[in-house]
Amino acid sequence: YYPFESTVDIFECAAGFGLGGSALALFGRVGGGIFTKAADVGADLAGKVVNGIPEDDPRNPAVIADNVGDNVGDVAGAGSDLFGSLAESTCACLILAHASAGLVEA
Predict the structure, then answer these.
(1) Residue 98 burial (CB < 10 Å; 0-12/13-18/19+)?
(2) List of long-range contacts for 24-28, beta carbons under 8 Å, 24+ apart
(3) Who has the most CB within 10 Å: 10, 75, 80, 88?
């Protein structure tokens, strides 16, 4: 069973998978950064500006959200980079495997 009509179909599917993986990784990285920055600004405003306590003081409950935001940003960024690399390397392997199929028959 061979689901593709021609070689062009295979390359279009591989390119679409790689582009989709890269776009998803980009949005995951940006989303994690936005969450991190929002939590950081909220903690700073609530602590320093409103109550006059230092940054990352345990008396400020927004510090918990700030720390969670940092972790979400780090995990979302690392996971997005990992997924993007996996998608792109998988596409490269698929294209190389298809392009070198004639070497096996020779």
Answers:
(1) middle
(2) 24/80, 24/83, 24/84, 24/87, 25/80, 25/81, 25/83, 25/84, 25/87, 26/80, 26/84, 27/80, 28/76, 28/77, 28/79, 28/80, 28/83
(3) 80
Structure-token pair, residue 45: 């405003």
Q: Give the length of the chain.
A: 106
Nearest partner of 14 among 85, 104, 98, judged by Cα: 98
Amino acid identity for residue 39 in this structure? A
- The DSSP line for 56-87 is T-TT-THHHHHHHHHHHHHHHHHHHHHHHHHH
Tokens 């995990």 -> residue? 75
φ and ψ at 19, to 5 degrees? -65, -40
The answer on pLDDT for 106 being more than 60 is no
Give the model confidence (pLDDT) of 23-59 as tens digits: 888 887 887 778 778 878 888 887 888 888 887 788 8
